[in-house]
């Protein structure tokens, strides 16, 4: 896999993850924005009915990019060979979670990565974590996320920000 994330940036992100564990304040969570060769983006729905991108906890001591790929494999069955390029680190955002059951003081720290895939792979949905997933054009994913009501306002803002930063987003497709 080609990695278009500067090594120094990955090192800083890995250090930030370790700091989350050291201070037990944020649960480090990798989020995979997966793009097929035709420009479609994968959105996923958790068992609880929350839409977003495939994501999961980065384990303590685990490389952030390896953790993101592991989560994609666990949730969707994608082998690592399907990743053509880790296009880059897109965005970082914190999500306050009231009465967080994970034991972290504040909630989740989300690290969004953009991946380009070799093809549109067959999805083996892990029904223990996800209930559905769909491929769609970035502007339609943006419209879908902007209409979500069953999601934290901050998470919706982050999803829309990430979509707007993708190079595959058509010019003039956004309402701003």
Give your account of this protein's structure.
With 176 residues, the protein is of the alpha/beta class. The chain has a single domain (2-165), classed as Nucleoside Triphosphate Pyrophosphohydrolase (Alpha-Beta Complex). The protein contains four helices and eight strands. It has helices at residues 7-23, 64-76, 138-146, 153-165, and strands at residues 2-3, 26-35, 41-46, 51-52, 55-57, 83-96, 107-117, 130-136. It has a five-stranded mixed beta sheet with strand order 1-6-7-2-5. Strands 4-3-8 form a three-stranded antiparallel beta sheet. Helix 3 (138-146) runs antiparallel to helix 4 (153-165).
Describe the structure concisely.
With 176 residues, the protein is α/β, with parallel strands linked by helices. It has helices at residues 7-23, 64-76, 138-146, 153-165; strands at 2-3, 26-35, 41-46, 51-52, 55-57, 83-96, 107-117, 130-136.
Task: Outline the secondary-structure elements.
Blueprint: E1 2-3, H1 7-23, E2 26-35, E3 41-46, E4 51-52, E5 55-57, H2 64-76, E6 83-96, E7 107-117, E8 130-136, H3 138-146, H4 153-165
Helix pairs in contact: 3-4
């Amino acid at each position: 896999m080609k990695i278009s994330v500067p090594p120094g940036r990955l090192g800083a992100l890995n250090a930030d993850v370790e700091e989350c564990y050291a201070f037990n304040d944020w649960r480090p969570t990798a989020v995979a924005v997966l793009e097929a060769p035709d420009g479609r983006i994968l959105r996923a729905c958790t068992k609880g009915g929350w839409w977003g991108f495939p994501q999961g906890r980065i384990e303590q001591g685990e490389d952030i990019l390896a953790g993101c790929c592991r989560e994609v494999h666990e949730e969707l069955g994608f082998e690592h060979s399907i990743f053509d390029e880790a296009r880059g680190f897109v965005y970082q955002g914190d999500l306050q979670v009231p009465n967080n059951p994970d034991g972290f003081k504040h909630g989740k720290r989300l690290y969004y990565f953009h991946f380009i895939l070799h093809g549109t792979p067959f999805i083996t949905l892990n029904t223990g974590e996800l209930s559905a997933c769909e491929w769609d054009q970035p502007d339609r994913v943006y419209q879908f996320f902007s209409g979500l009501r069953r999601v934290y306002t901050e998470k919706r803002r982050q999803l829309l920000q990430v979509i707007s930063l993708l190079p595959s987003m058509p010019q003039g497709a956004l309402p701003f």
